[in-house]
Amino acid sequence: MRIAKATLMTRWVWSTGLAAGVFAILAALDLRLKALSGVGTADLASFSSANQFRAAFFAWSAGPYAAQAGFNLGFDYLLMPLYAASFFYSGIIAAEGFAPKPNTLRRIILMAAMAPLVGAAADAAENALQLTMLLSGVNQTLVLLSSSASNVKNLALLIGLGLLLAAIIARVQQRRISRDRGNSTPKTPAWP
Q1: Could you give the angle at which helices 50-60 and 65-98 cross, rounded to 10 degrees?
Q2: Containing H/E element for 191?
Q3: What is d(CA 163, CA 122) in angstroms, rounded to the nearest whole number?
C-alpha cells in the first residue's frame, strides 16, 4: 500500500494533535479522580496483586468515584487508536527520513512501527480486564492478565514515543535540507 507524502504528513499531524488533546483531557480527569479518592485509573497499570485492585475499588466505592473511574477507562478507548495511528505514522516518517532506501535499518524501523498497534490492542485488553474487575470482582487470574497487558502496552508506548521523536527529528532535518537547497540556488545579480 502506498500513501502520498502530503497525506501521510496530514494524518500524522492530526492523529498526533488529537492524541495529545485526548491525553490531556484524560490526564486531567484522572488527576481529579486521584485528588478526590486517592487512586486514579492510571495507577491500575502498576498494580500486580488482587489486594491492590481491591483497595482501589474500595476507595472508589464511596460517592460517584466508581462511575468516574469507569468513564476514564472507557474514555481511554478513544485515545488508543489515536496514539496507535500517530506512532505508526511516526515510524513511516522516521523510516523515510533515516533510511529512504531498502535496508536493514528501514526494516527495523518499520517493524517497530507495528509495536504501537500491538500496544493499543494490549491497552484495550487491559482496560477491559480492569472494567471487568471493577464490575464483577477481582481475582488473581484477571490481575495477572491485566498486569501482563499493561507491561506490553508500556513497552509499545515507549517504542512509539521513540518513533515520534525520530519522526520529529527527521522532519526537522528534511526542512533544513530543503531550506538549504532553496538558499543555495545561484542568484542572478541585479543590474545597476
Answers
A1: 120
A2: none
A3: 19
Chain-centroid distance of CA 102 in Å reads 27
The three cell numbers of residue 67 are 462511575
Confidence band for 52, pLDDT divided at 50, 70 and 90? very high
pLDDT mean over 11-35: 97
Distance between CA atoms of residues 96 and 101, nearest Å: 8
Cell numbers at 190, concatenated? 541585479
Q: Please list, residue by residue across 12-41, b when 16 or more beta carbons sit within 10 angstroms of its beta carbon and e when fewer do.
A: beebbebbeebeeebeebbeebeebbebbb
Give the pTM. 0.88
Burial class (CB in 10 A: 0-12, 13-18, 19+), 123: buried
